[in-house]
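Minutes, project check-in
Item: structure for the 81-residue chain
Input as provided by the requester:
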Amino acid sequence: MVCNVPLCLSPTGKRQQLFFTSKVEVSAICEKLRARRDNYGNSLTALTPERMAKAVEAHKLLDPHQIDLLDATRGYLATQK
């Protein structure tokens, strides 16, 4: 039995194929993936359009320097301590 994991849900960031010996194992993994997908979608609705726009702008400023937004935020917070 095989479970195809789309890149947006894969821990590696790449599409995966996971192989199992039983349908029960595949069903359990698929259920976890569905929950992860649903939780991700729900977390996006918690962001206001203003915060989304600010995040996009921050990414645009950081991308030329190859700095991740989360890394930049953590670095800033570390200097503030």
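Outcome recorded: The chain has a mean pLDDT of 88.
No further action items on this chain.
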